[in-house]
Design a protein that fits this description.
Elements: H1 4-19, H2 35-42, E1 50-53, H3 58-63, H4 68-76, E2 90-92, H5 99-108, E3 113-118, H6 125-136, E4 141-147, E5 150-151, E6 154-155, H7 156-160, E7 174-178
Helix pairs in contact: 5-6
Length: 195
């Protein structure tokens, strides 16, 4: 079983590889504070379940069972934002909300699906559409909202000007956990400035 320390150590190694100029593509790093909540969530996720992830997918990929060497290989090849392994029933995308219709399609085909989104994604139309479609068709899908109260670098609530995103959607298949950033929104290429 992978531990929180394993996840944090892996991410620190990736940050060091990036800082050394060994990764020539954007890298979106997980926060140390995500490790423990994600370990708890993944206790419910079976090997036969599909996981649809975001551009910050390292911890998800490792917890889904993709070997650390394979996750690192994909990151080193510049695929940090779209790590995938059909063998492990794991896909990700850098497109905000891009996994939502794919997750619904997998669930509509009879698969058990877990789809991860950020708190800003949970406030957009694509999320509401996926929630309504999955509810209306009784799909076996769980939405996990990873809430750090930011949309990139803008506080999510400030972006919309009101309320909490979960006040505006059903919560029967939607779970949320909160975390705080350890790293910036993304790791810029050496010589560039971060956001």
């Amino acid at each position: 079983m992978i531990t929180a320390n394993d996840l944090i150590t892996f991410e620190a190694d990736i940050a060091a590889e990036f800082a050394a100029g060994n990764i020539r593509a954007p890298v979106h790093l997980n926060s140390d504070t995500q490790a423990t909540p994600l370990i708890e969530i993944f206790k419910e996720i079976k090997p036969t379940d599909w996981v649809c992830s975001t551009w910050r997918s390292t911890f998800h990929a490792l917890l889904k069972g993709i070997p650390p060497a394979e996750v690192k290989r994909q990151i080193m090849a510049g695929h940090s934002m779209f790590i995938s392994s059909p063998e492990h029933r794991f896909i990700s995308s850098a497109i905000m909300g891009g996994m939502l219709p794919i997750a619904c399609g997998l669930a509509y085909a009879g698969e058990r699906v877990w789809v991860f989104v950020g708190d800003m994604c949970a406030s957009i139309g694509a999320f509401k559409d996926a929630d309504k479609f999955s509810h209306g068709h009784h799909l076996d899908i769980t939405f996990i909202v990873e809430d750090n109260n930011f949309s990139t670098n803008t506080p999510t609530l400030a972006a919309w000007g009101y309320g909490e995103y979960h006040d505006r959607c059903r919560m029967d298949r939607i779970s949320t956990y909160k975390y705080e950033r350890t790293y910036p929104h993304y790791q810029p290429l050496p010589g560039q400035h971060g956001f």
